[in-house]
User: Fold this.
Amino acid sequence: MRIDLRSDTITKPTKGMLQSMMNAVVGDDVYKEDPSVNELEAYLANLFGKETALFFPTGSMANQAAIKLHTQPGEQLIADHYAHVFNYEGGGVSFNSGVSCKLIEGNRGMITADQVEAAINPPDFYHSPLTALVCVENTTNKGGGACYDIETLKSIKDVCERHGLGFHLDGARLWNAMIAKDQSPKDFGKLFDTISVCLSKGLGAPMGSVLIGDTELMKNAIRVRKVLGGGMRQVGFMAAAGLYGVKHQWDRLAEDHKRAQEIGEVLSTLPFVLHVEPIDTNIVIFKIATNEDEFIAKMAEKDIHFYSMGQGKLRLVTHHDYSERMHQYFLEVLQSMD
Ligand SMILES: *Cc1c(COP(=O)(O)O)cnc(C)c1O
Assistant:
């Protein structure tokens, strides 16, 4: 039995999802003639209380397009030093938008209004880049699935409004945050100018992300997507998978969170585990006293797979394809390690 805890991106379509893909009515989405894509976009815009939404092949492209919509070359965005847009999008912020990042050392990838305020360059000081945008991530990836309180986000939003800055949410795993914190999409729609969400992680679709925002800001999004090479044809098969994920596989993220908690509880009893980071959602980060590559190799012998983050830190992610049977077996294996 292969147990793959490297990421929730490894999830495969369920029977119901495959059925919805098979039944999808499609058309050429470059002409905006794909009914399934149009349906997904309308559904998500409405869910978040925004005017419009646009389907993207990847979350990176959706974030990169958002950054382009909010900025001009030479300007600067503010983000936590763990941010996906800075660390894991291939330098796209500078490549695509000619923008630099002012990085904040937040707590597990989360930043505060005071930190944002302090990071803004005074607009009349023409020596420094003009601050244009604040990007936050929820849940945080490198921060171990941490998620924000709405109050914290509200106070960052106030700072953005006072200084005329755009406010973008990298919500790749926002679905997990909303389940963990009992928040609603409209809570986020009210706060952010643009929101990207992934369909291909916990929700289990094979691909796809959606960028959500209001018409005025989003009017160039389709052009930016085209420039980035993201105009797709009969992609309604994938949009149907994503819509199925939102409608039928969102609630069950609570199971992933529960299993992550249980893994954390067992880990913290093991003598060679130095530290388990707080577990808010489906990501578990822990530190071990022994060599992490050896530990990972030992686990791989038992066909259990997860990642090293370097410096003794290990990461595992629970997801739809990690079943209760796998979970019980994994906990047993962990308890037998010395
Ligand atoms: C996964 C992820 C993305 C998007 O990644 P893609 O692989 O490009 O779809 C963006 N932000 C965060 C925080 C993520 O975890």
Residues 58-60, 63, 84, 137, 141, 170, 172-173, 198, 209 surround pyridoxal-5'-phosphate (CB under 6 Å). The first strand starts at residue 3 and ends at 4. The chain has a mean pLDDT of 97. The radius of gyration is 20 Å.
